[in-house]
Design a protein that fits this description.
With 196 residues, the chain is α+β, with helices and mostly antiparallel strands. The protein contains eight helices and three strands. Bound molecules: manganese (II) ion.
Length: 196
């Protein structure tokens, strides 16, 4: 059985950028529902006692297990998203190691923000935008629905949820403003550095 981990901050800690009300729904309802559905779907089958990572690996390419993959993946993605965020009051900048990679792979931090925002906007419909380390190079990726970047030499560093439920209460249709605000004010660069 999987459980919803506590948020790494209070529900109001992201205000004014993401409201407590958004977290009530996004964490308390959407994320909880993915966990509940995953538990229901794996009860009584061979995946019941597997780790989340093993469930993802075993179901990713099996069309008959798409519902299990989707709910497991959304549990992984949302947990990763909460860990990608820091309280609004916490000031944080990329570590020296990250900054040197950013400068090497993007030019500077502003160019990373611009490229990430463009990827997030180019994701048609629901999905995720990601900062990843792929074979030692920083890259930006986008994924549809519940998919996440995955590969033998790939590490996810930070993400932003671009499903409408992530921003509609606070930003309505303005996905670009939401993504820009999250990157600049809420990204947890210490979490990214730990994933390097
Ligand atoms: Mn979401």
């Amino acid at each position: 059985m999987f459980t919803l981990s506590p948020l790494p901050f209070s529900k109001e800690a992201l205000e004014p950028h993401i409201s407590g009300r958004t977290l009530e729904f996004h964490y308390g309802k959407h994320h909880q529902t993915y966990v509940d559905n995953l538990n229901k779907l794996i009860t009584g089958i061979d995946l019941e006692n597997e780790s989340l990572e093993n469930i993802l690996l075993k179901t990713a390419t099996n069309p008959n297990q798409k519902a299990i993959f989707n709910n497991a993946a959304q549990h992984y993605n949302h947990t990763f998203f909460w860990n990608s965020l820091r309280p609004a009051a916490a000031k944080m900048e990329p570590s020296a190691a990250l900054l040197s990679l950013i400068n090497k792979n993007f030019g500077d931090l502003e160019k990373l923000y611009a490229e990430f925002k463009a990827a997030a906007l180019a994701q048609f419909g629901s999905g995720w935008a990601w900062l990843v380390l792929d074979n030692g190079e920083l890259k930006i990726m986008k994924t549809a629905n519940a998919e996440m970047p995955f590969g033998p030499n790939l590490k996810n560093l930070l993400t932003v949820d671009v499903w409408e439920h992530a921003y509609y209460l606070d930003y309505q249709n303005r996905r670009a403003d939401f993504v820009d605000t999250v990157m600049r004010n809420l990204w947890n660069w210490d979490f990214a550095a730990r994933n390097l």
